[in-house]
Amino acid sequence: MLRETRVRPAPGLIVAVLLTAGLLAGLYGFYLGARANDFGLAIPSILIGGLLGLGLPGLFTVQPNEGKVLTLFGNYKGTVREPGLWWVNPFMQKTGVSLRVRNFETNKLKVNDARSNPVEIGAIVVWKVTDTAEALFEVNDYVQYVAVQSESALRALASEHPYDAHGTHEIALSTHQEEVNRGLMQALVDRLATAGVEVIEARISHLAYSPEIAAAMLQRQQASAIVAARQTIVEGAVGMVELALASLKDRDIVDLDAERKAAMVSNLLVVLCSERSTQPVVNAGSLYT
């Protein structure tokens, strides 16, 4: 694998001044020789000016957060990262690579989760090039490579986890965003390591059931919420009944046998667990009649 090699070429400003001065001197010498019909002066002057003019394409600029990859006849010679005006062999090819931070949002992918439920999922990936040689020579198109590998990693991640968690220690896409984002980040780091790319951030930006099952899944979520709420209500009601019976016994207010205690428990549970307000019934007779 090719690794980036930093090089520092000749200062461009100095070389530009020297080349320009030499080119102007050659043109002036050609003018003098042509005017005096002195071919011994005119021909060397124009040849020297032409050779110096060939050196001008070797001048190039490097912008901040940019790298210029230098190749000579198909051989990698190094990368220039220092901003400024520089000069190298004019036959060298200079390819610019942006080192700025980039971000993009993947398409909304339709994927089956761990329970084979179709879901729509999308992610935002923030990345930048850290090795210009790997980015240019190890993959065909590093920008497209990042996009394709990001969608591939997102598909794999979505198929490994369910949309909703039904277990205590189960990682779900909708409820464990930090763990899911961390898993996506690690998957991208592994996939993009050979492309000279650093992943700065990766997070889920869109998550929803597919339209064809969204209504059914909403009903299931509502049912699960109702069951959980009723379970909490029943547990609280049982605690209140237990406390009431214990208080009656400790204060010696009334002594209930097993049958009457069961009736009282039933009535209290109906009152406490009912979804509607209960209507009181006054018993004017004896408790046992």
What is the strand and helix layout of this fold?
Elements: E1 10-11, H1 12-35, H2 39-54, E2 59-62, E3 66-72, E4 75-80, E5 84-87, E6 93-98, E7 102-105, E8 109-112, E9 118-129, H3 132-137, H4 142-160, H5 177-192, E10 197-209, H6 211-250, H7 258-273
Antiparallel strand pairs: 1-5, 2-5, 3-4, 3-6, 7-9, 8-9, 9-10
Short structural description:
The chain has helices at 12-35, 39-54, 132-137, 142-160, 177-192, 211-250, 258-273, and strands at residues 10-11, 59-62, 66-72, 75-80, 84-87, 93-98, 102-105, 109-112, 118-129, 197-209. It has 289 residues and is α+β, with helices and mostly antiparallel strands.
Large-scale geometry: rod-shaped
Quaternary class:
single chain
**Name of the CATH superfamily of the largest domain:** Band 7 domain
Order of helices and strands: EHHEEEEEEEEHHHEHH
Helix count equals 7
Low-pLDDT sequence parts = none
Question: Can you name the CATH architecture of the largest domain?
Answer: 2-Layer Sandwich
Task: Determine the structural class based on helices, strands and strand pairing.
Answer: alpha+beta
Average pLDDT figure:
81
Helix content: 40-55%
Main sheet characteristics: 4 strands, antiparallel
Task: Look up the CATH topology of the largest domain.
Answer: Tetrahydropterin Synthase, Chain A
How many β-strand runs?
A: 10
Compute the CA-based radius of gyration.
Answer: 39 Å
Please tell me the total number of domains: 3
The proportion of strand residues reads 15-25%
- CATH class category label of the largest domain: Alpha Beta
Cα-to-Cα separation, first versus last residue = 95 Å
